Amino acid sequence: EHALDPQKYWMERLQKLVKQSRALNSGEIQSELILTTDELNALAARLERTRFNPEAPDADDELVSMLWGLDSWNDGALELRRLMAPIKKRLDADDVEVLGSGFVLAAAVLRHLNEDPLLPRELLSRHWQGDRLRADYESYDAAYSATLTRWLLAD
Description:
Blueprint: H1 6-24, E1 28-30, E2 33-34, H2 37-49, H3 61-67, H4 70-92, H5 99-114, H6 130-153
Antiparallel strand pairs: 1-2
Helix pairs in contact: 1-2, 4-5, 4-6, 5-6
């Protein structure tokens, strides 16, 4: 139902946030989302005027960008992909010296993936890095696991 009507889906989500905010008599919804009631009301009014058109996915990039920092997330994904490439090459060559830094990078990638808003494709840019980051990480994780296993089983 909501897959066919993203406006209805996000209106319901936003209305729940506004209702929660009013019930709390403050702007704090949850620890990572702090908005005043006025800000939530302004977002609700803006969303009511917005009509998502699946045939024109760029129709309201401003609203989507305002609600979820997509450019920032995408930039972070590109940077993580850039950082994984040379470490993966070394892991593919069984270089155990990168296991420590590779672990830290894996944790950063997983944290970043956890923050992916997982929006419908119609709301994402053509250059969205979410799927590419997941694919690169899957390959990276396999190389990391293989190198770590060989290192642990070595005499």
